[in-house]
Amino acid sequence: KIAVVDSDNTQIKTRNCLDHGKIRSNIRDNLAQIRAWVTICAPVVDEEIVICSAGASLEEHIDEIRELQERGAKIVSVKHAIETLNRHKIKPWAVVLLDPREHVEGFVTNPDKDPYYFVASMCNPNVVRTLNKNLCKVIGYHALVGAGEVADLIPNDLPIGGGSATATRSIALFSDMFGYKKF
Question: Cα torsion at 66, 74, 162, 39 (round to 10°)?
Answer without folding.
Answer: 170
